[in-house]
Amino acid sequence: MSTTGDPFLKIRGLKTHFPIEKGVLVRKTVATVKAVDGIDLDLKRGEILGLVGESGCGKSTLGRTILQLIEPTEGSVHLDGRCLTDLKGAALREARKDFQMIFQDPYASLNPRMTVYDTLAEALLSHQSIPAGERSQRVAEWMNRVGLSPRFIKKYPHEFSGGQRQRIAIARALVVEPKLLVADEAVSALDVSIQAQIINLLARLSKEMNLTMIFISHDLSVVKHIADRIAVMYLGKIVELGTAEDLFDRPRHPYTQALVSAVPIPDPSKERQRQRMLLPGDPPSPMNPPSGCSFHPRCPHASEVCQQASPPWVQENDRLIACSRLDVVPRI
Amino acid sequence: MALLDVTDLKTFFHTRAGVVRAVNGVSFSVEKGETLGIVGESGSGKSVACYSLMGLIPKPPGRIESGKALFEGEDLLQMSEAQLNRIRGRRIAMIFQDPMTSLNPFLRIEDQLIEPLLLHGVTDKATARQQALEMLEKVGIPGASRRIRMYPHEFSGGMRQRVMIAMALITDPDLLIADEPTTALDVTVQAQILELIKEMQQQLNMAVIFISHDLGVVAGFCDRVNVMYSGQIVESGATDVIFAQPSHPYNQALQRSIPALQTKGEELFTIEGQPPDLTRPLNGCAFAARCTHATDACGQSAPHLERIGETHWSACLRVQHQEITLTP
Questions:
Q1: Is the domain covering A9-322 a CATH 3.40.50.1820 domain?
Q2: pLDDT over 70 for what percent of chain A?
Q3: Is A192's Cβ below 8 Å from some Cβ in B?
């Protein structure tokens, strides 16, 4: 369906601003939180994009805005040639089978009063017109695909462990065979050994289904493992974008450098020799972000330019970096 | 004499579903000034073990079935509530994972900071206030004199954890128990907080028990590490040997399943199955059912930690009998 050359998922100038209102009778907008502030992204079909950044940087809001769970303030999202931001009401509901989401907390995102069958069948019922007889077969098939025995089909979420619940959530999202999946911190609440199982499952299914995925996480090593490319977000904007391993091994933006250097390595001898870039302070509030480059108050390389003008996009090979001082930022 | 010497600690929970053997025979010691890491997945008993020492286990359903915990020669487990109160928060302090739920939202930071000093009758109120301010500056809170009058909700997550640390360390304790203190924080803030704990530890010459599920954090932070599984310590040793020569299949599998240490794109190593149900008595090794090296003998008799190197202990029968050698 997509016209040749057009990316499978095309995001242009996407902005999500939340007004802060005050007053009881007359509500006045006193400030705006710029959670997502001008995002351009292209994804190829079957590509996995990792979205990393600290809490409050807008990565979850971006994910939700792409899926039209939050209405964007500005900008557009095109999936496989169709503009999602223009869709409303029934047309949007109908289109939702093409883009699904899985969440961090498998305890909160499943209805405790619904069995696995009900949960998966409901997804099918609302999105696909398949005969009732086939429905249970499809549910059983998907339980197998996510590694759950179909004999658990009549069980309730509380009877499963955290990892198993996340498998149910994955099955619920994928049973309608979407084109795009947004995984928001999908493995963050899980223990290391379970986390590895779920990462393997997601990687395998996305390959089998040629699924385009946005994998949101604060854990850089997980993202590096699963993603083809990584986008680093800071205060609502992407500051660096590149292929996963390359970006992790040779970060160029000062913020990415600090982020990568803060990731603990499970190797005591390496860990001791490491030079850590400690960033001063906390990320500033997205309510009144600093002028110019929003990272400049915490950046060790900032100059006057950074306070005044938004940083330009610099391309180095297949890497994009939003920084005006790249010539003085040392390579790591 | 070790600062803290725990032997054969057993903490069980008597629930309607059965007896949960949360901590099942744990022994370890902490020397003055050193950092001991306790790693394990959820439900491995790492927190319950430390809460038991502090008398923080709700009884019932919890019960400490056996064991000794000698803190400078005195058994913490035999102490009355009044005796414990003289030690808790003064000689042994604790910080928790979630700084929002462990600070009182109704009290100004100042009142919370001076509370331990006043409770333990260390100083009068005026001196306590002065000390609180100094402590807040020490833990790196900018504008401390202004911010000391604020409430917890006016602080960010990282700042709250700094306040928690200030509160814990204001009485100059000999031992700090840190239960996943950085798990809820972003990596850049985590790096700041770890650096701060390390700095304060050197200044005050205190020992730290660091509970974490994150092997990466433990690798950089601890002198020694205990690896826990199903309420037992399965491997114990100097941090270097724990990582360079894992000597229990669980420790090895745990390290192998971390994405950071694996080649990109390849299928991640996983541990099959689930941890055992702690309400059922186990005859043999708790890990045997998931272990790729297990033999019939592993399921029959309960293994114990045995010395396998100068600074290295393992509870794996096959490693103890030198039947297998594990690599990282």
A1: no
A2: 98
A3: yes
